[in-house]
Amino acid sequence: MPRVLIQGGFMRQNGFMTTISENVWLMFLPALLILILITLPPFFYTIYLSVHDIDITKPYLGRHFIGLRNFMAIFSDKRAVGSFLNTGILIGGMVAIEFFLGLLLALVIDSFFKKSTWLITLIILPMTFPRVVVGLVWRIMLNPIVGIINYLLVPFGGGPVDWLARPGWAMFSIIMVDVWQWTPFMVLMLLAGLQSLPKEPFDASRVDGAGDLHVFRFITLPLLQPIIVVAVIFRLIDALRTFDIVYILTRGGPGTSTETVDIFAYYMGISEAGRISYAASASLIVLYVTVVLVTIFLRFSRQWREELY
Amino acid sequence: MERRTVLKKTLAYLFVIVTLVALYFPVYWLITMSLKVRIDIMSIPPRWLFTPTLANFSWLFNHYSLQNAVITSIIVALSATCISLALGIPCAFALSRFAIPRKKDIEFWIATTRMLPPVAVIIPFYFIWMSLRLLDTRTSLVITYLVINLPLIIWIMMGFFRALPRELEEAARVDGASRWGSFFKVTLPLALPGIGASSILSFIFNWNEFFFAFVLTTTNRTLPVEVASFMAVGLEVKYGEMAAAGVLASIPSLIFAILARKLIVTGFRGIAGFALK
Fold first, then answer.
1. Alpha-carbon distance B229 to nearest alpha carbon in chain A (angstroms)
2. How many angstroms away from the CA of B228 is the closest CA of chain A?
């Protein structure tokens, strides 16, 4: 183990030079090594798979290097492109609705229920339910015949809807269920943001006689903007993995109308087709999109940090 | 009070009440469904008043291989959490206290692994575990779950360690404690709330995890996968039994969440704020 002479460690404040001893390496290397071991090999294996042509149901065909042909095939495959579009619509819809509802709730809580911790507790509890259970309850409630939703809606003039069997409604239902479970996360983030804002600009504008909407539009929103960006991008990254709810509610159906990239890759690579190379290419595209989102996230969160401190 | 203020207050209360009803109706529905007999579940208009029964729960315990799923879930969630704590806490401590070469890059990389979409690693994981003959074992699940847990614990704990004053550790060091000694005797006890928050959060994540468990196991299923499989049992869907299993699967994370609600709020802030501390 190398001994690195470096300024820092416990004695930093006193200006001493200390060495990083084996003890410190022992503290952080095991975790790091394990993380490297469980993330890098799968990652490189995915790349290896994506540039080959492997079909596990036809092992006699062998493994051929085919370069980027898998990716080109994906972009001309209607079902694959559809799954990317579905993913985009789904996470875009979820995050947009969650953001607006979350902001509204956070503002209401911040101005009227500031001291009530029980309300925050009640609001975050649904987040801790297993997503599978959430999917099942909603699936039963959305059942066109015995479901409670149609029963409650019909008196209000909503015709009975077969929620999960019609393409548009199925997409809407998945978004609704995710909104149900994850709006609280937005509330939590935005509330944390609201409560960390400086008080002076608000007091000053009140003295000047500004109305609520005015204060919101010209003071709250601009001050909150970095936190909003962080919360939204964070939620987008997390929404990219909505496999469970989609799988429980629709299994990607009807047809392929709610098939997301996860579901597509799962069917292609593991459960039905055995085209693991093809599936691996699709998942690499998801990874690429995530990396772009993470980069944006980090840039904005750094900006937020610089503004706060 | 001014009329406008009263109006605003009324609207705010109304909004919060509507939100709470929307949030808790499905929970109420799940619980009542688990206590209803089949005829009551299927009846339209719904039976708001009914005689509760524990038949669904007793059916679950007598007729369904639920024990195995419960045991698997407990073993996997607990071991993944414990291993990640044992590895992650010292790592977070080292990263927050010592000058480590390329520290910023290491922290950045750890952060990105938490954001790795599972679909990007699931296919290689499947084949790696298959070739190691570990597919469909609890071991493979525990190791796979480290991908989710380690970064989470390292982030949250880094935030907590940074907020702790160094002076106490330095005092202990001056008094002759070793680096590990001051870490165990001084720092760790002070960081207990952080350890609580991160272990509860990672336990909840593990307990609820579906995607990895669903793809990587067939017989050693966790509780969520078992609950999902109810959809396919026989020809008739066993709604009541399914709801009862859903209630069972929700109880552990719910209890933890209620016990540690404040820690969770801090923890969730830690997840998003890892780059902010």
1. 10
2. 7
